[in-house]
Amino acid sequence: AAIALFGMSGLLLLFATYTSLLPDVIESKAQIEINSPKSQLIHYLSKAKDWEEWLFTENIKKTEGWSTKTAGKSFGEGSVLKWFSEGIGNGALEIKKIDSTRIVFERISDNNSFRDRCYLFLEDVQNGTLIKMVDSLDLSTNFFARYEAQDESYIKDIDLSNFEVLRRLKSILENK
Who's near 111: CB < 8 A, 6+ residues apart? Predict the structure, then answer.
């Protein structure tokens, strides 16, 4: 019994050591130029309810059980969008900071499998606004995501996904 206990303790120690070497937070970056003035972009992004329009794909929004609701303030810092989905799970997004150069928001899933703080840096350019997205994804509560994050293709997939999100935002704003 003592040998089994010692062996299991050793295995747990090895697993804990291995887990501690896995990444806790990864950073994704994407950017896009939008043919809209910065003030119009800030106004649009100040209502979390508007984020549903471009943050999620049409396929997700058409799935069974999809619904959203808002909480907190309707406009500005503290504006919250909650989503409910059998396909991607439930979660929420809250706008944390808005100023003339950036918008900061946090997302979290209901099962705490992901949490992230995302920064949208806004910069005036000749034909509109350049949006630079920096997404800090906290993987500390999801062992499998931490394991997969070791592979460089994992972060590239997230970069691509964030670029697609920005492309949907661009499409919506430029077609209004």
Answer: 89
